Amino acid sequence: MRLRISHKTTYSYDTPVHYALQQLRLRPRTGHGQTVVEWSTEISGATRQLSFEDQFSNQTDLLLADEGTTHIEVHCEGVVDTTDTAGVIGRHKGFAPLWLFLNETTRTKPGPELRRLAREVSGEDDTLARMHALSTLIYDQVAYDTGTTDSDTTAETALTEGHGVCQDHAHVMIAAARLLGHPARYISGYLLMDGIVEQDASHAWCEVWTDTLGWVGFDVSNRICPDERYVRVATGRDYGDAAPILGIRQGAGSEDLHVTLQVQQ
Amino acid sequence: MTDSKPHFDEMFISEGAPRAPYEPYHNWFAGEDIKHLRRKSAEAEAFFRRIGITFNVYGQEDADERLIPFDIVPRVISAREWSRLERGIEQRVRAINAFLHDIYHRQEILRAGRVPKELIAGNEAFLPEMIGVSPPGGVYTHIVGVDLVRTGPDEFYVLEDNARTPSGVSYMLENRETMLQMFPELFTNMKVRPVSNYPRALRRSLSASAPTCANGKPEVAVLTPGIHNSAYFEHAFLADQMGAELVESTDLRIADGRVTMRTTRGYKPVDVLYRRVDDEYLDPLTFNPESLLGVPGIMDVYRAGGITIANAPGTGIADDKALYSYMPDIVEFYTGERAILQNVPTWRCSEPDSLKYVLDNLADLVVKEVHGSGGYGMLVGPAASKRELAAFTRKLRARPANYIAQPTLALSTVPILTQKGLAPRHVDLRPFVLVSPNKIDITPGGLTRVALKKGSLVVNSSQGGGTKDTWVLGD
């Protein structure tokens, strides 16, 4: 399937920016069932300083805000060909060891609720069946609800309060999988939605390591394993490693964030 | 802590009979008046106070800055003794750099089962942000300060490999400077190898590790957390001696894809940053976001190959106390040779049998925190009260993996000058090692720390230790 993506992120500042940096993880790679046919990133209000591959092989760019700017706009546009692998990503690549994906992070630190959740599926012997059961449980127990959580919300909090967005679903699944001894990682990316072109945020899901199939993706929010409608962009231990944009800014003043996203065939 | 075991006296074979390397010094000393020497010693102290070599003692509120006492009796090491130490240190430092490259890439040593995976996987000193990074020239530890103790004529043990940011080199340099001024005649009688080349060698070594984007003469800068840091004097001193800029966080910013520093002629790229800021505070964009001491974006520039950070972030995994006991294996694994320098026997409290042994013999052992440094949070069994032992027993039971234990070694002594003349005191030695892509350079000498209290084995300056000049003799 050929997917066309246009993703625009705009930051508006109420006072001119003196010094600010932004780290972008917004470039998909070819591989794992996807081929990047073309991809471009246009930036205004800031200047790209450098690019590198981070510890999870994410293609990362560093931007420096143009002095005195009041807007920074990052516009990614491209075409990606995808195939349906039924969620199977397969073998582990890169130098980041598998055990790293077992370590807890601030967002995935387990508490009593996550332990309870993990116990509920611990009866399943087969890893894959156990993860499917886990995904269903999370879908049932954490209602999809925008505006109730933010990027720092922990998995334990989302599960306890019973609502969240795709990011929270992924964090809960990652935390529970790790409790059960399965390496798990966070994926940020894009999803072609049925009959909807205009989206207001990019998507997130998770992948769990199985001894038989290697990495397998689970999108709790949509109750499926990713197929040809998905484009993987960045990965890591949790949102913090794979965030599309991470910034630091000196000085006072507030900022306003606006995202427009179109994913279509 | 005190100790009654027989110990190796580095100066004397028996009373009045000096060992060969000390003979010229001993002859000179015999002709000197003790009172006169005591006056000289007071002069040395005044000199240090004037130039401002002081040391902040953590946890000592009343004294912001304290002078580290200096003893005027030098420690002498023969050419033969030194050459063996040199070979041992070089071997160890090579192994440490090979280990660091491996642990942040393929992790062959874990695959081979020579170091347990758990030791790295659960270790806070392992820095995921370093995974896949190959620093310029392949050097991870540009500066190493290996702590050695001696128990016999040819018995040296490595106590710690300081692979993060070892301090103390300014004392080595100032101690020598002072001795040269006070006792020039001694240096004409004895062939003492100079240490004064260190700053030049450091600059040369750091420059040799510059990234490929550095053109011509690499720009070197020293990053200090600022004037309130306990080692600020050393940061300023080294920058000055090297002819490098001393910078703080606010002097640095990203421009044109590089880390640049503010100069009178605008911002200028830094090729090599000798940073004296810990990893956690180095880059608020990547590590602790609250840090005001670091440079946002420096890790990005580093990963893109635009700067050399000395030492590389994440080197702490090599001098981690939990890994220390594996150092002989690490040396063998990467060099194919047996370790020349010995390790102190170490019990890993994470292992149930070892924990039991440690708890049963606590009063005879030194227990250290795996991540601690500088003598803080350690238990010296023979010197501890019953209450302290009981408190540590509880700590050990609660978090066994947080501790290692070692026997109390019979540390060698070198005399210090007291009111009554020479009196033996326990010492250790920290030689300073410079690593560049094609050379390992060990300054002949180092920092000798001395426990000034009679019988004491704790040499840390924060615990009342002093320093001595260290003389390595030429052939």
Instruction: Give the low-pLDDT segments of chain B.
Output: 55-64
Order of helices and strands of chain A: EEEEEEEHHEHEHEEEEEHEE
Compute the gyration radius of chain B: what is it?
A: 22 Å
CATH class of the domain at 345-408 in chain B: Alpha Beta
As laid out across the biggest beta sheet of chain B, the strand order is 3-23-22-19-18
Main sheet attributes: strand count, strand direction, barrel closure of chain A: 5 strands, antiparallel
**CATH-derived architecture of the largest domain in chain A:** Roll
Report on the structure:
The complex is a heterodimer of chains A (265) and B (475). Chain A is an alpha+beta fold and 265 residues long. Chain A is built from 5 helices and 16 strands. Chain A folds into 2 domains: 101 residues, Immunoglobulin-like (Sandwich), CATH 2.60.40; 149 residues, C8orf32 fold (Roll). Chain A is 19% helix and 42% strand. A 5-stranded antiparallel β-sheet of chain A has the order 3-6-1-16-11, with no helix packed on it. In chain A, helix 3 links the parallel strand 8 and strand 9. In chain B, strands 3-23-22-19-18 form a 5-stranded mixed β-sheet. In chain B, strands 13-5-4-20-21 form a 5-stranded mixed β-sheet. With 475 residues, chain B is α+β, with helices and mostly antiparallel strands. In chain B, helix 3 packs across helix 13. The two termini of chain B are 37 Å apart. Chain B has a domain of 64 residues: Dna Ligase, domain 1 (2-Layer Sandwich), CATH 3.30.1490.
Please give a quick description of this structure.
With 265 residues, chain A is α+β, with helices and mostly antiparallel strands.
List the keywords.
heterodimer; A: 265 residues; alpha+beta; Immunoglobulin-like; C8orf32 fold; 2 domains; five-stranded antiparallel β-sheet; globular; B: 475 residues; Dna Ligase, domain 1; five-stranded mixed β-sheet; 23 strands; 31% helix
